[in-house]
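Aim 2 progress update. The chain analyzed this quarter is reproduced below.
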Amino acid sequence: MKTKRHFMGLDNNQKIRVIVNGIGFVTTVKGAFNMCFRTQRIAVTSVLTSLGFDQYLPENKRPTGILRRETVFGDKGEMVEYDVQVDLI
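Predicted structure tokens:
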């Protein structure tokens, strides 16, 4: 039985480099769900979704990374901004 893909266009075991507000780490697409803070996890998964959609572009125009400023609502309803960069390794 095949496992479900978390993001369309990306394999769950694809290695990625994630940088959130200057703090970077290497993980897999599946490992992006193991982040400590909920707001950061939402920001990273949003960027991964965009990167996954871009994998269906023609091969010479496919990006290998994406950098974006994401705005997420925090626990108390406040808006929190994160600079998120995700690169495929």
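The chain is about 20% helix and 35% strand. The chain has one domain: 15-88. These observations will guide the mutagenesis experiments scheduled for the next reporting period.
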